[in-house]
Amino acid sequence: MRAGAVRSDADRASRKEAGRWPDGARRLSRKRVGRFVENCDDLSMDVEQRTERPRAADELATLAGFLEFQRDTLALKCAGLTGEQLRRKAVPPSELSLLGLVRHLAEVERGWFRNVIAGDGVRLRWGTGSPRVSGFGVEDADVEEAFAVWREECASSRAILASAESLDVTGVHRTGRVFSLRYVLTHMIEEYARHNGHADLLRECIDGVTGE
Q1: Residue 7: left if φ>0, alpha if ψ -120 to 50, beta else—which one?
Q2: Are 184 and 113 in contact (CB under 8 A)?
Q3: CA dihedral in degrees (168, 134, 102, 62; nearest 10)?
Q4: Which of 7, 10, 75, 174 is most buried, by CB atoms within 10 Å?
Q5: Any domain includes 128
Q6: 22-28: which pairs have CB atoms within 8 A and are 24 or more residues apart?
Q7: pLDDT tens digits for 96-125?
Q8: Which residues are paired to 18 by β-bridges?
């Protein structure tokens, strides 16, 4: 529902019963998601396949679970779209695109986990400056490469997390500042959540899909 709109319970129920939602939007539900994952097996994702967020776990499991949920949500937002749709800058004047978000978040995973926590000192995949601005350009971007790199970086991040002694492990940022693994996990959840909000708007403008 759009901000500021007020609908009665009866109105919402009637719209749901009729299978219609405001402004022609389609809800992304378990029944409908299959329509949007048929173009690329690598992007297939059902809303119920996302990592369940821990409700009564310890700090590490909770933070890791929420991060996985956000990663899965990004994959869901991209599921079933063509290369052209993934590259589309659908919310002008913003330069953001879904593919740009995937590439950017691959760089962010790489920067925080491999460089800060693990101290690998690896270079960015698609830029020479800061991960904060890297990956957004998609004019000549390869879709399969982008998702392969993103999955690779996510797997690397999981391995680094699994090998860490505790959330108190620290690493040094390129600016010289020291950050704990606890901070990195919290920041990554924040980073994904922010960009998944962008992804919500991009996806709705591309093909009308909303929700989840």
Answers
A1: beta
A2: yes
A3: 10
A4: 75
A5: yes
A6: 24/208, 25/204, 25/208, 25/209, 25/210, 26/207, 26/208, 26/209, 26/210, 27/210, 27/211, 27/212, 28/76, 28/209, 28/210, 28/211, 28/212
A7: 999 999 999 999 999 999 999 999 999 988
A8: none
Range of the domain at 76: 24-210
Residue 18 within any structural domain of the chain: no
- Residue 108 phi/psi, 5-degree rounding, is -70, -45
3-state SS, residue 23: helix
The CA angle 2-193-19, to the nearest 5 degrees, is 40
Strand duo 26-27 + 209-210: pairing: parallel
Quote the tokens at residue 193.
Answer: 């959540």
**Which residue do the tokens 């059902």 mark?**
46
pLDDT computed for residue 179 by the predictor: 98
Domain of residue 104, CATH code: 1.20.120.450
Task: Specify whether the CB–CB gap between 152 and 122 falls below 8 A.
Answer: no
The stretches of the chain forming alpha helices (DSSP H) are 9-18, 59-78, 83-87, 98-109, 143-163, 181-207
Which residues have CB under 8 Å from 185's CB, separation 6+?
63, 64, 67, 161, 167
